[in-house]
Amino acid sequence: MFNIIEKFLSIDGEGPSSGELATFIRFQGCNLRCSWCDTTYSWDKESTSEMLTAEEIYNYIKENGATNVTLTGGEPLIQDNIDKLLYILNSDDSLIIHIETNGTVDIEPFKKRHKRTNISYIVDFKLPSSNMTNKMNLNNLKVVENNDVYKFVVGSNKDLQMAYELISQYALTSKCLVYLSPVSGNIDMEEIVEFMKDTKLNKVRLQAQLHKIIWDKNARGV
Ligand code: SF4
Asked: Which of 101, 140, 142, 207 is in Cβ range 3.0-4.6 Å of 179 for a Cys bridge?
């Protein structure tokens, strides 16, 4: 059984299918405490709204009719028995699965167990303003592939500098999609654009979070 905080049908607010319909499954529990976390409710066991089996989650996804599925949290990859759900989802070629993972869990074993390419990993790198940088799994910078995304969550100029160094050091733009995602309220998007211009940061995308433009910043289930 999985602790599910919320599940809903909406548009994908970020990522490769941004703006398209997607079913969201948000798991309870996170092994990080980012300074600017906008989903602190996912930390709290009291927030769990329902316990669902892998089959029930799959059925909910199919009933919704959206082909995009986003598994998020919290942290999806620390859930007990997450492989059982991934086996089911990986075997349905009509679905496109995005796993939003916080960067602490090595994705390589998951890639080996779930080989079909309908699963993509959207891997965060938590930069210094999060206070969580030392928890990042650096192997992920090596094993991402062309249907994956590295998402650098930037809240300061120091964060931008570190993102730039990592993108260069690991030649990330030749391996996967690379996004710069601003921490809402901490950094101006203009500052990010100026940084991209100054550093000639090609093949990196500034990503605005659509759901925060469409709905209230603190709205849930959208
Ligand atoms: S990883 Fe995500 S859910 Fe966990 S503390 Fe950081 S922002 Fe919040």
From this structure: 207
